[in-house]
Task: inverse folding
C-alpha cells in the first residue's frame, strides 16, 4: 500500500512542480506579489512530497517487499540492513528519485534561506527550479517508475550488484548528487537574472555560497568515487579517464571556474555576463553528465540498465534546458550592463587567467569524452579515447595553471605588483625546489619529471601558506600583533589557502603514485615470502569464510619490515556472492604513513599456488586527503560572514545562510 | 594603451591560448586514440607490431592456459577469426570461457598479442558494448 502512496506523492509533486514553475514567474512578469509568493510554499511542499515518495521506496527495500519490481531486481532478504537502505539508489530508477529528491531539497533551501532576496528574484529562481523538477519527475514517472508492482510476488530477490554492496554506495552517490544538482541553484539564479534583465554585485554574493556548497559536495563525491574504485575494483587505479568519471569532472571544472569568476563579479563588478554564462554552462555540464551516465550511451558500472526511450527522454530534457537557457542568454545578455575593464596584472587578471585555463581544459575533456560517441554516431567507427589523450591535452593545460596559483591571492585588486609578489614567494619557491632536489637524489627511480611534479605540489602548499603569512604580517609586526591579525583574517582567506593547499596535496599524491609505484606479481603458496619496498610479506594461510550473503577464500599475509619488525596482518580475499553467483576481489590494504600496500588475489595456478599481485603505492592517500582539505577550505569559506546572503541587507538576521553547509 | 587596445590584447592572448589548446587536442586525437579491433578486422587489416590497440571478442572455449607462474595465454575469437593473447598478471573476476573480453596491448614480432590490460564485463548483464555490437553484426550474438 505504501508503495502506491509513494507513487501518488510523486504524481502530486509533479502537479505541484508545474504550479511552482508557472505561477511565480507569471507573478513576477505582471508584478503581482501574491502570485510571486506562491513559489515558497510550493517548493517546501514539493520537497515533502518527494521525500515521502522516497521514504516509501526505502521502506519497501528495508522490508524486502519483493512484490515491488524494483526491489526484487536489486535486493535480497539476506543483505545487511545498510545495503538494503543504500540499495534504494543502487539502481537506475532509485538513483533518479534520489536526484530529484536532492533537487527539490535545494529548492526548499532556497525558499527557506532566500527570504531576504528581492521578491521577484526569488520568485523567478524558484520558478526555474520548479521547471527542472517538472522535467525530471515526469522522466521518472514516464520511463523509470520505481513503484511498479510484480504479481505474483517472488519469494526472494535477485540481490544488488556485489560491487555496489559497500559503504561507498552510502556516501558517493548522495555527495555527488548534492554537487551536481547543487549547481542548479546557480543556474536558476542566472536564468532569473536574464529574465529580469538585472544583474549586480549583490547577485554574485547570493550565488557564491550555493556554488561553493555544490562545489564542496562535488569535490567530496568525486574523491569518494575515486577511492571506492581504488579499493573495490581490485587493481588500485584511482582515476581511469572513464567517460563516466569525466562526466563528474566536467561540472567540477566548470564550477571551479564559476567560483572564481563570481569572486571578480562580487568584488569588482566585472565579468558579469561571463559569470552568468558560466553558471548556465556548469549546470548544463551536470545535466550532460546525468545524460551520459543514465541514458545507457556508455557502458559501465554506472549504467544500470539500457532502455533507448530513457536516453531519448533525457536528451530531450538536455536540449530543452541547455538550448533554452543559451537562447535566452543570447537574447537577453545584451540588456545586462557590462562590467568594467582592469589591468592585466591584478587579482582580477589572475582570476581571468584561471577562468581561461579552466574552461579550455574543460573543453578538452568534453571533446575527449564526446568525440568517440560522435564518431560512432556519424561514421559507425568505434574508437576509444583513453588516458593518453587526456594526459597529452589536459595535463599541459592544467600544469601551468597550478604553477601560477600561489600568485593569485597575493596580487592586489585593480593593479598588482608582480615583482613584489614574486619576492614574497621566494621562500616557498626555494623550499619547493629543495624538496624536489631531495626527492631526486634520495628516492631511487625518481625521474626529473617526478621530482619536479612533487616540487610543484609542495610549491602549491607552501604558496598557500605564504598568503596567510604575508596577510598576517609575519616579520613586519610584533608577534602579538601578528597573532591577532592572523585570528582576524576573513574566513574566506583561510578557505582559499586551504583549498589551494588541498590541490597541492592531491598533486603530490597523483605524481608520486603514478611515477614511483612499484608492483610484484608472484605465484605463492602458504609459507612463501615476497619482498617489496623494504617490507616482507609472508603468505600465511588460505581459509574459507562465510559472510551474510557471500562465501570467500581469505588469504592472510603477515607483514614485517625487512629488518624484522612485525607490522601485523593483511587480509585479502576472493569473494563469491551466492545470490548472483558473482565473484569479486576484496583487496587487502594496509596504510603505512601516507603510503599504502595493496594486495590483490588472482586465480590458482595448475600446481596449486595462488597468483598474488602486490603494489606499493607511495603517498597515495594524499590524493584523497587533498580533496578533504579542499572540502574543509570550502566549509571555512562558507562560514565567512561576508558570504552570507543576509550581508547585503544588514538589518535582517544574517545567521541563516551559513547553515547551507 | 587605450581601452580598445587593451581589450584587443586580452582577446588576442585568449585566442592564442585557445588555439594552442585546439592544436594540442587535434594532435592528440590523431596520435593517441587507440582503435578498437575484433579478430576479423585484424585479418583484413593487420596492424604493425608495437602499435597499441584494443582487441575485443569472446574468450575461446578451452583456450585458457595457465602456466605455473603468473602468465596466462588465451585466444580471443569472433566466431570466424582468432587471435592468441599473452598476459602476465591477475585476470578480472568475471574472465571466463565464452564470455566477452576487451584487452589492450601490442602485437609482438611473432603475431602474439601481448596484453597489459584485460577487462571483462562488470556483471551478468554487462558486455562491453563494442564487443556486443560487433558480435551482433556477425550473427554470433546470443540473447540469454
Result:
Amino acid at each position: 500500500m505504501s508503495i502506491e502512496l509513494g507513487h501518488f506523492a510523486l504524481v502530486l509533486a509533479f502537479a505541484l512542480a508545474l504550479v511552482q514553475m508557472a505561477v511565480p514567474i507569471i507573478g513576477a512578469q505582471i508584478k503581482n506579489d501574491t502570485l510571486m509568493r506562491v513559489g515558497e510554499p510550493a517548493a517546501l511542499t514539493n520537497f515533502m512530497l518527494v521525500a515521502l515518495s522516497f521514504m516509501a521506496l526505502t521502506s519497501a527495500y528495508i522490508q524486502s517487499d519483493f512484490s515491488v519490481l524494483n526491489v526484487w531486481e536489486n535486493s535480497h532478504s539476506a543483505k545487511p540492513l545498510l545495503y538494503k537502505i543504500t540499495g534504494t539508489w543502487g539502481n537506475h530508477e532509485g538513483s533518479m528519485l534520489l536526484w530529484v529528491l536532492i533537487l527539490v531539497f535545494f529548492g526548499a533551501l532556497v525558499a527557506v534561506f532566500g527570504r531576504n532576496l528581492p521578491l521577484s528574484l526569488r520568485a523567478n529562481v524558484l520558478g526555474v527550479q520548479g521547471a527542472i523538477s517538472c522535467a525530471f519527475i515526469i522522466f521518472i514517472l514516464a520511463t523509470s517508475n520505481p513503484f511498479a508492482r510484480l504479481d505474483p510476488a517472488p519469494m526472494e530477490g535477485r540481490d544488488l550488484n556485489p560491487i555496489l554492496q559497500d559503504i561507498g554506495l552510502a556516501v558517493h552517490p548522495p555527495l555527488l548528487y548534492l554537487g551536481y544538482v547543487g549547481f542548479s541553484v546557480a543556474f536558476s539564479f542566472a536564468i532569473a537574472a536574464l529574465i529580469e534583465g538585472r544583474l549586480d554585485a549583490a547577485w554574485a554574493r547570493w550565488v557564491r555560497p550555493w556554488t561553493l556548497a555544490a562545489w564542496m559536495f562535488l569535490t567530496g563525491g568525486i574523491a569518494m568515487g575515486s577511492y571506492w574504485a581504488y579499493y573495490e575494483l581490485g587493481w588500485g587505479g584511482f582515476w581511469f579517464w572513464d567517460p563516466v568519471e569525466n562526466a563528474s569532472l566536467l561540472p567540477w571544472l566548470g564550477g571551479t571556474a564559476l567560483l572564481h569568476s563570481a569572486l571578480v563579479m562580487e568584488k569588482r563588478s566585472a565579468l558579469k555576463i561571463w559569470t552568468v554564462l558560466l553558471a548556465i554552462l556548469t549546470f548544463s555540464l551536470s545535466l550532460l553528465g546525468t545524460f551520459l551516465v543514465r541514458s545507457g550511451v556508455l557502458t559501465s558500472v554506472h549504467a544500470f540498465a539500457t532502455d533507448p526511450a530513457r536516453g531519448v527522454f533525457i536528451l530531450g530534457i538536455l536540449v530543452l534546458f541547455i538550448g533554452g537557457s543559451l537562447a535566452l542568454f543570447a537574447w537577453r545578455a545584451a540588456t545586462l550592463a557590462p562590467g568594467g575593464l582592469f589591468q592585466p596584472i591584478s587579482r582580477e587578471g589572475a582570476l581571468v587567467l584561471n577562468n581561461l585555463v579552466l574552461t579550455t581544459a574543460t573543453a578538452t575533456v568534453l571533446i575527449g569524452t564526446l568525440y568517440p560517441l560522435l564518431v560512432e554516431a556519424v561514421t559507425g567507427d568505434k574508437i576509444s579515447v583513453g588516458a593518453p589523450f587526456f594526459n597529452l591535452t589536459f595535463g599541459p593545460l592544467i600544469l601551468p595553471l597550478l604553477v601560477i596559483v600561489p600568485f593569485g591571492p597575493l596580487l592586489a585588486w585593480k593593479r598588482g605588483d608582480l615583482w613584489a609578489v614574486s619576492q614574497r614567494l621566494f621562500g616557498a619557491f626555494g623550499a619547493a625546489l629543495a624538496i624536489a632536489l631531495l626527492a631526486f637524489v634520495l628516492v631511487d627511480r625518481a625521474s626529473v619529471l617526478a621530482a619536479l611534479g612533487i616540487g610543484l605540489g609542495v610549491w602549491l602548499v607552501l604558496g598557500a601558506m605564504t598568503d596567510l603569512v604575508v596577510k598576517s604580517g609575519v616579520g613586519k609586526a610584533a608577534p602579538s600583533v601578528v597573532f591577532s591579525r592572523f585570528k582576524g583574517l576573513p574566513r574566506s582567506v583561510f578557505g582559499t589557502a586551504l583549498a589551494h593547499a588541498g590541490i597541492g596535496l592531491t598533486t603530490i599524491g597523483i605524481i608520486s603514485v603514478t611515477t614511483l609505484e612499484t608492483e610484484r606479481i608472484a605465484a605463492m603458496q602458504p609459507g612463501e615470502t615476497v619482498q617489496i619496498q623494504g617490507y616482507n610479506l609472508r603468505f600465511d594461510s588460505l581459509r574459507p569464510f562465510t559472510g551474510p550473503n557471500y562465501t570467500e577464500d581469505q588469504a592472510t599475509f603477515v607483514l614485517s619490515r625487512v629488518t624484522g619488525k612485525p607490522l601485523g596482518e593483511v587480509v585479502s580475499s576472493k569473494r563469491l556472492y551466492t545470490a548472483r553467483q558473482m565473484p569479486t576481489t576484496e583487496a587487502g590494504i594496509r596504510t603505512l604513513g601516507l603510503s599504502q600496500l595493496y594486495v590483490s588475489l588472482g586465480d590458482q595456478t595448475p600446481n596449486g599456488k595462488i597468483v598474488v599481485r602486490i603494489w606499493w603505492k607511495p603517498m597515495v592517500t594524499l590524493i584523497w586527503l587533498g580533496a578533504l582539505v579542499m572540502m574543509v577550505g570550502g566549509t571555512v569559506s562558507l562560514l565567512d560572514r561576508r558570504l552570507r546572503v543576509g550581508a547585503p541587507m544588514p538589518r535582517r538576521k544574517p545567521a541563516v545562510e551559513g547553515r547551507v553547509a | 594603451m587605450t581601452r580598445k587596445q587593451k581589450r584587443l590584447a586580452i582577446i588576442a592572448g585568449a585566442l592564442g591560448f585557445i588555439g594552442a589548446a585546439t592544436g594540442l587536442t587535434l594532435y592528440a586525437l590523431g596520435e593517441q586514440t587507440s582503435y578498437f579491433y575484433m579478430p576479423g578486422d585484424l585479418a583484413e587489416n593487420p596492424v604493425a607490431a608495437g602499435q597499441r590497440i584494443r582487441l575485443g571478442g569472446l574468450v575461446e572455449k578451452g583456450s585458457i592456459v595457465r602456466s605455473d607462474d603468473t602468465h596466462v595465454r588465451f585466444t580471443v575469437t569472433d566466431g570466424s577469426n582468432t587471435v592468441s593473447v599473452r598476459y602476465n598478471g591477475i585476470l578480472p573476476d568475471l574472465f571466463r570461457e565464452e564470455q566477452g573480453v576487451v584487452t589492450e596491448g601490442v602485437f609482438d614480432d611473432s603475431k602474439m598479442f601481448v596484453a597489459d590490460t584485460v577487462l571483462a564485463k562488470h556483471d551478468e548483464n554487462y558486455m562491453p558494448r563494442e564487443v556486443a555490437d560487433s558480435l551482433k553484426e556477425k550473427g554470433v550474438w546470443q540473447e540469454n
Notes: The radius of gyration of chain B is 22 Å. Chain B has a mean pLDDT of 78. The first helix of chain B runs from residue 3 to 32.
